[in-house]
Amino acid sequence: MRHVTFVDNNDVTLLESGTAYFPALVAALDAARYDVLFETYIFAEDPTGVEVRDALVRAARRGVKVRVLVDWIGTEHRPAQRLGTVLMEAGVQYRVFNPWCRRGIARSHRKIVVVDRELAFVGGININDDWQCDHADKHRLPAPRWDFTVQVRGPLVTEIHDEAQGQWLRAGRLKLRQRIELFKEMRKEPAQSCEFPAKAAFVVRDNLRNRGTIQRAYLQALGRAKDSVLLATPYFAPGRKFRKALAHAARRGVRVTLLIGVGEFVIQDMVAHSFYPKLLADGIKVVEYRKTQLHAKVAVVDDDWATVGSSNCDGLSLFLNQEANVVVLDERFAATMREHIERGIADGVPVRPEDYAGIGWIRRASYGLAYMVYKLVMRIFAIGYA
């Protein structure tokens, strides 16, 4: 397992939801001069998807080398085929990650864009309409989906580029000569330092060298926490080690607050509910976000540690899927991230111990059963979940 390695002199800007991200993304694609590496889990066939797709097409047609990788399950088979047809006609190099689950059930859940090795975007935002639910009947949400991405300039962009380049290699079959050319591209000079010298790290989770790297980053931060932990996640179902780290922090006086999304998947909500009594007994504050679909995977620890990325705090993200986060050690960035999470908490509904005091045995048993089934499935498919 790799250690979390921080790089100095990066400019890291927080972008909230698609209203901030998509204009910045399209502008970056339209300004691209040399190459674009583009990864996403969902690439929807809606006006947002068309806008981004057309920006990729424009870049390719003016001679920019554009490589796009989408996930087969996230984007879905037919839409992925139609997207590929349009992109490849314009000269975009296009691949679908793990079609028909030929390489197992792991998914590429990452959302990464690198432009000219100078600018990168990493976060949780898919290429889809903020107002449209991204599953089931795709109904209109009561408010825009709540999510985040970071825009990065500086030396860290080189690491992000190299990882995205490696993912492109792993996702397809290339001849030896093509692989050599790609590795030559990875050896170009790194980006220069920027105006705001934030220290940051790029952490990924895969099933090779980085199986536990994202969880390790969280555990290290929780172990050092002295004052507060704010964590927002759509789905809460981490393994025992993660839950113990949260409990230990709360017991030594750290103010721990979990903001958890609810209302998407009944079984997922039941699994999360199975943890509530223990979390509350340990002194952890639990808040359910009900304003709209919570898709953010973000956290702040004390005054200088923050993370933004694609990794949920559940078994799929921490032990099975391929994920990517940016961790930032910077007081300015952490303060901004804290303000956003605190606004989310204000929009949520606190869970009180008395809310569970009167729950009947049938509901309690159903929560416990949901967790047991979830744990069994994770142990079968995800190495390390306990």
From TrEMBL:
GO terms for molecular function: transferase activity. This is Cardiolipin synthase B. It holds the Pfam family PLDc_2. InterPro entries: Cardiolipin_synth_ClsB, PLD-like_dom, PLipase_D/transphosphatidylase. CDD domains: PLDc_CLS_1 (cd09110), PLDc_ybhO_like_2 (cd09159). Catalyzes the phosphatidyl group transfer from one phosphatidylglycerol molecule to another to form cardiolipin (CL) (diphosphatidylglycerol) and glycerol. It is found in: Cell membrane. The lineage of its organism: Bacteria, Pseudomonadati, Pseudomonadota, Betaproteobacteria, Burkholderiales. Belongs to the phospholipase D family. Cardiolipin synthase subfamily. ClsB sub-subfamily. The gene is clsB.
